[in-house]
Amino acid sequence: MDAAPTVMLRDDAALCVFDTGQGFPVIFQHGLGGDAAQVAQNFPDSPSYRRLTVECRAQGGSGSGSRRPFSIAMFADDVLAAADAAGLDRFVAGGVSMGAAIALRLASRHADRVLGLVLVRPAWRFDAAPQNMQPFSEVAKLIRDRPLEDARNAFATSVTAARFRGEAPDNLASLLGFFERENAAVFAEVMQAIANDGPGVTLAAAGNLAVPTLVVGSGVDLIHPLATARFLADAIPNAAFAEVTPKANDKDRHFAEVRAAIAGFLEDRFNNQDQP
Fold it and tell me: Which of 19, 106, 111, 270 could be bridged to 93 by S-S, CB 3.0 to 4.6 A?
């Protein structure tokens, strides 16, 4: 369990920042609607690494603030500000899903600071508003347009839900959970904005990345297609690729394999380096 976070004020948004461990620095970010607990499920628990996680605006314990629109660029800037405040000049950047997009943006835009890259179950290639993210827009619209119970029922009986029920039940559980959030209205703004966004990185820019990279993908997942993970691994020079057990098949095994893949990558590429 993570220690209590510190609070960083960005604009008028109070953001929760988790800073654990004292070893080699890794910034690792959660997915859309996730939090530091999700990160802890995916990141190896080791004293060898100092792990910094920012709960993005309107997610986890962080406030939404009044600045709009929400974007991956905004969240990446918040993460970089947290790194500055923590005195982390250089670090490995990583994350799950949206967190992977944030990490990819940091690696591309701040190559002087990012030593390595870990992309777990990425949802974006390079274009904004990929088709696999559109269920988030569908959920957001229902939350905006209807009372929450009606909105949830409408989605649960939709064509989209029927497809996910048969092909990606773990994704469906996550989507249905968004109707239960206490901050559902403002989080609908986040979902709509992020689903229509992208990392702001081109294929050519990814081809110029010159840091050790690990991409982790899995099947039985319509939000994070295995093909997307393979595409990114092929696009980034010398990236390592690991396929793990789908969450829908065995959650415990999935997380154990993700943690093991990350631990092996960090051990192999960064264990003998001094702290930057």
Answer: 106
